[in-house]
Amino acid sequence: IRNLIIGTSKMIERSDLSMAQLRKNITSKGGTTQAGLDTLSQYDLVSIFEDCLNAAVDRSIELSNVEDQ
């Protein structure tokens, strides 16, 4: 999984194509990528990442306020 994420990040960074186009280019109908994407589409990943980042920002602010006292 780690190498998949690293490889995907590098591909996105090096390409001038949008992530949507890259996904289209590597996804074969009925293939493994499509199976994974079908499963991921069942979840609201945008909200999950937003909640995660917001919690981290909120905690950072809390910690900053404690250090200022």
TrEMBL record:
Residues 3-63 form the Pyrroline-5-carboxylate reductase dimerisation domain. Pfam families: P5CR_dimer. It comes from the Bacteria. InterPro entries: 6-PGluconate_DH-like_C_sf, P5CR_dimer. This is Pyrroline-5-carboxylate reductase. The lineage of its organism: Bacteria, Bacillati, Bacillota, Bacilli, Lactobacillales.
